[in-house]
Amino acid sequence: MNRPAPTRKEATHERIVEVAARAIRRSGYDGTGVADIMKQAGLTHGGFYAHFASRDALLAEAADRAGADGVEALARIAAEAPADAALATLLKAYLSREHVAQAETGCPVVALGSEMARQAPEVRRAATRRIKELVDLIGRLQPGWGTPEAHQQALATLATMVGALTIARAVDDPRLSDAMRHAALAQLGVRRG
């Protein structure tokens, strides 16, 4: 079934959300202003309320988009790998030097996690939904998928991934950043190489 082409307003709305999704990962929720987002989208600040009821409504959509992009990218990486190597491939990509350097397009949980608790309920709800999707994706790649143990392992795996990437991005010592990533991969049972 063919979907109709998006209207001009729908296309503009999507452009604003895409810009905002990148902006929140780059500058955080509190460092992202409506005026800057609208300017980056090539629009005037006055047009904002034609698309969103509030800044929080925009942030919720941006969090949802950033989360969806992250889940989609990891699912694609896992799907392109042989089934018996899907989880290891996903982990290596997530804990790669490239991902450390890609804050603006990378994992929004790492970029925004410390700010999440202070956000409006609608923003937190959007982020929580996407975090649950990440847990489910990792769980499906675990041996014993569907068991409580596999779910618990998926939770621990995601926590290790996010923690290691957060620290790898935070430090200004490239060797320590690399050591953090490699230690996390080893802890998760992934061999380098």
Could you give the topology of this structure?
Layout: H1 8-27, H2 34-40, H3 55-80, H4 86-94, H5 97-101, H6 108-116, H7 121-141, H8 148-170, H9 174-187
Helix pairs in contact: 1-3, 3-4, 3-7, 7-8, 8-9
Quick structural overview:
The protein is an all-alpha fold and 193 residues long. Helix content is 69%, strand content 0%. The protein has a domain at 54-187: Orthogonal Bundle (Tetracycline Repressor, domain 2).
Describe what this molecule looks like in 3D.
The protein is mainly α and 193 residues long. It has a domain of 134 residues: Orthogonal Bundle (Tetracycline Repressor, domain 2). 69% of the residues lie in helices and 0% in strands. The longest helix has 26 residues. It starts with 7 loop residues before the first helix and ends in a 6-residue tail after the last helix. The mean pLDDT is 93.
Beginning-to-end CA distance, first to last residue: 44 Å
Name the helix and strand elements from N-terminus to C-terminus, one letter apiece.
HHHHHHHHH
Describe the largest sheet.
none
Q: What is the CATH topology assignment of the domain at 54-187?
A: Tetracycline Repressor, domain 2
